[in-house]
């Protein structure tokens, strides 16, 4: 009977966020909006949404 080699499986998880930001759009007027998230004067996320 041959020796079986053990297989090692390795995975890495990104760090989970420690804080959460909520944006309540209920109080916004209807229309098109653009959300810009900036860190250290650099744009890291730009998204648009429509409030109906």
Question: Any overview of this molecule?
Answer:
- This protein is mainly β.
- The chain has no helices and two strands.
- A two-stranded antiparallel ribbon has the order 1-2.
**H and E string:** EE
β-strand number: 2
- Overall 3D shape: elongated
The biggest sheet, with number of strands, parallel, antiparallel or mixed sense and barrel status, is: 2 strands, antiparallel
* Alpha carbon gap, first and last residue: 69 Å
Strand coverage percent: 35-45%
Which stretches are low in confidence, meaning pLDDT under 50 for 5 or more residues running?
Answer: none
Brief rundown of the structure:
The protein has strands spanning 31-39, 42-51.
What are its keywords?
0% helix; 2 strands; two-stranded antiparallel sheet; mainly beta; 52 residues; elongated
Helix and strand arrangement:
Layout lengths: L30 E9 L2 E10 L1
Antiparallel strand pairs: 1-2
């Amino acid at each position: 009977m041959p020796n079986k080699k053990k297989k090692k499986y390795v995975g890495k998880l990104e760090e989970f966020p420690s804080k959460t930001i909520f944006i309540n759009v209920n109080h916004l007027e209807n229309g098109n909006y653009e959300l810009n998230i900036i860190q250290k004067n650099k744009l890291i996320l730009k998204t648009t949404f429509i409030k109906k």
